[in-house]
Design a protein that fits this description.
binds magnesium ion, TIM Barrel, 8-stranded parallel barrel, 12% strand, alpha/beta, 316 residues
């Protein structure tokens, strides 16, 4: 933008602040016109398996349905394989969808055999997720320092992931009706993938079957704008994690810090249909910090989070 144009724009913005709605209307005339998304975005709240009250599969799913949730996130590893049939049965006739499977992964080993073992481990997991009609398998391509011996450099890893490990997993996922979902992390967790836009570019280069997600907890350190980050992912955004922004615990405990409205605006502009899934811990039990919170208190906090997120979605 030319300096004169910028100043002109700034002047109009200044007048808007000073003169109120008449000037705001004038300003609207030069604002970009956005096309409405094909589908209206939905807030599909979701919990991770370990955080859902109840011990039996049906108890957990009943809890989600009765408390304003639309989706469920399961562990990865062998869990999807071992629980595939039971989960298909338990999900029948419910208003829930199976979002993602979440667990550790690492494709940064310098030894090709170790990377191959990682690919082989996940192929049957993807088949099970496809059968369960899951959105996908969350993948963090690398953790820790890539400068350590025995690791690929970031440049080598990107090439190998896009052309080899990630592409083969994505193709397999796509064939079975699911996807791999790249998760950007914080800089202290990985130097490789920190921003949603970068994850989206890796997903695009990897090809069909590869998508990206955003985790509000990581994003608040790594992104300049929640809304901008989500928009940059576009249709490749298939999953969202959420946690308190002051402390990585259930949203609503530090309600003054937990503002997701800007991010939700981005999801609305995309017509986002995926899940917003709580991933984080719980506040300490004031009576005994070693014991964890009693279940009734966790249920109260879950309901408090649902209310907070629904209110902020309405504001976005
Ligand atoms: Mg996460």
């Amino acid at each position: 933008m030319k300096r004169r144009m910028f100043l002109k724009g700034s002047a109009v913005a200044g007048v808007t602040t000073l003169c109120g709605s008449g000037a705001a209307k004038a300003a609207e005339s030069w604002m970009p016109k956005l096309k409405a998304p094909e589908q209206q975005a939905k807030l599909n709240l979701c919990l991770q398996w370990g955080g859902i009250p109840g011990s039996e599969m049906t108890q957990k799913l009943d809890f989600l349905e009765a408390n304003g949730f639309s989706a469920v996130e399961i562990p990865s590893g062998n869990w999807p394989i071992e629980n595939c049939e039971a989960m298909i049965q338990a999900m029948k006739g419910r208003k829930l969808f199976l979002a993602t499977a979440c667990g550790p992964s690492d494709f940064s080993y310098a030894e090709p055999e170790k990377r191959e073992a990682e690919v082989q481990k996940f192929l049957p997991v993807l088949e099970a997720l496809g059968k369960m009609k899951s959105v996908g398998l969350i993948i963090c391509p690398a953790r820790g320092k890539l400068s350590e011996p025995g690791r690929l450099s970031a440049k080598e890893l990107r090439k190998d992931f896009v052309e080899n490990t990630g592409r083969r997993l994505a193709e397999h996922a796509h064939k079975h009706g699911t996807s791999i979902v790249l998760e950007p992390l914080r800089r202290n967790e990985t130097p490789f993938l920190r921003q949603v836009a970068d994850g989206a570019a890796i997903a695009r280069d990897t090809g069909p079957g590869c998508t990206v997600m955003g985790d509000f907890w990581h994003m608040q350190l790594e992104e300049t704008s929640f809304m901008g980050a989500f928009i940059s992912a576009g249709k490749l955004l298939t999953h969202v994690h959420i946690a308190g922004l002051k402390e990585r615990i259930i949203p609503g405990v530090h309600a003054e810090a937990d503002n997701y409205v800007d991010g939700f605006k981005g999801l609305k502009l995309l017509g986002y249909q995926g899940a917003v899934s709580f991933e984080g811990g719980w506040p300490k039990n004031p009576a005994d910090p070693k014991k964890g919170l009693p279940e009734e208190e966790r249920i109260r906090l879950i309901r408090n989070m649902v209310k907070l997120l629904q209110e902020q979605w309405a504001m976005a």
